[in-house]
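Notebook entry, structure prediction.
Reason for the run: the old model in the group folder had no record of what sequence produced it. Starting over properly, with the input documented here first.
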Amino acid sequence: MEFHGSPAGVKEQAETVQELASGHGGNAFEWASTPEERTRLWTARHNSYFAAVQSRPGCRVISTDTCVPISRLADCLLDSVAEADTSGIPYFLVGHVGDGNFHFGYLLDPNIPEERVKAEELNHALVSRALALEGTCTGEHGVGLHKMEFLVTEAGVGAIDMMRTIKRALDPKNIMNPGKIFSL
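New structure, fully documented this time:
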């Protein structure tokens, strides 16, 4: 989490969050007030993927990306965590929760194809949930290939048609990222 404001206000916010986290089973809460300390904590956050992969040697990861309004974040996360827990697939969860964006990483055994199928189902449920909560199918990583159907659900057929028109005007030979975001 990142807090902004006066030194006293930031300290108060961090202490409040630390107290809330502790009260709900959270531990190892750290906060920083210098640029060097912040860099150290952000580095740890960015290395969470590598730490998670090491927790299940030989695994492959399906990473998700979605975003919901902050007022809907707890609902989306709690329901999604419950589904992930029920699946039995190991996972990790990181995010930029200050803007409602978060990522599940499902740690899959490549020798168990059913895990990939289940992880894809979890991702589909997650994105559907985010859209139902007035969120978006992608918070920062884009639509690509796997979220094309969700973009239609989110933006509507008319908006996709407009995007196609703009794409054709700017890229008549379809050489810029062909086949991504929507089909022509």
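Summary: Residues 21 and 27 are 7 Å apart (CA to CA).
The old model has been moved to the deprecated folder.
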